[in-house]
Write a structure and sequence with these properties.
15 helices; alpha/beta
Length: 350
Amino acid sequence: MSKTVKALLTACALAAAAGAVSAQEQVVNLYSARHYSTDEALYTGFTKATGIKINRVDADDAGILARLKAEGTASPADVILLVDAARLYKGEVDGLFQPIQSKVLSDAIPANLRSTPAADGGIAWFGLSTRARVIVYNKVKVQKEDVDTYEELGDPKNKGKLCIRSGSHPYNLSLFGAVTEHMGEQKAEAWLKGMVGNLARAPKGGDTDQIKAVASGECDIAVTNSYYLARMMRSGKPEDVAVVNKVGVVLPNQQSWGTHLNIAGGAVAKNAKNRDNAIKFLEYLASAEAQNYFANGNNEWPAAKGLHIDNPALKAMTGNAPFKSETIPISAVGANVTKVQQMLDRVGFQ
């Protein structure tokens, strides 16, 4: 049985369960693109705190959005968790979420990490954790100052040195959307063309593969989400320790617009049957308890304001000091994705 069929059957089962549940039993039906085992503590913590049971369907971002469209008003989904700003923006534009007003969420989550307010002030989605798009480099072959900005990824001085996953992967589309917002379309397209010229090999693999490629000498610089590197930094496996010892890491553009942050975030489904419980769940995910699960469990920075984290890998990555992150609205990043994809096609970025 294919994964798609299994997921659809699970969704059908959720719908049946939602219809049969007794009035006394409190539930929230979750569609999640977060596939991190450490998140189990989040779900357990929420149920323990509220008595609300979580029924969960797991799929990737694109699969969840497609399913919501297909299910329409019959969808059992109450809460949607996605792991990319562009996909959250797409869900909003496609009318799959319902804007909500929550003082808890609005007080906790910075304005640039949530959707643009609707006419009535409602917010369609909120960022709940952040991950930086960082540059890793071979400490023997590359000087840090040659890779401390995103712009330098397209500079001819780095010709033949770059490894990166597919340009069309959501993590890269969001980075490229952010750079387009900062630089403008013309300069951003020239930058993307420069990156194509600097590739050491055709784009392939995931972010962890890029880090390993730098350590092995296949390339000298690469782009990765911070939590992939943090996992390896916290690993006790000799092969991971060996990789980490060979690479350096840069949080780019500290002297200009700041490092790009993507988000994992949540929304209330348009046709949520348990709307109040859905809002309670999102508010819980913005709490200090849940934000620390994000930080320590999956090596993500909290989205909520004013929280102190104690993750050794994240501390090491930043020198145990604050770093400058970009402040452009993350919704603008999502809005740029279509034009970015067209630019990628024009410059031949696979």
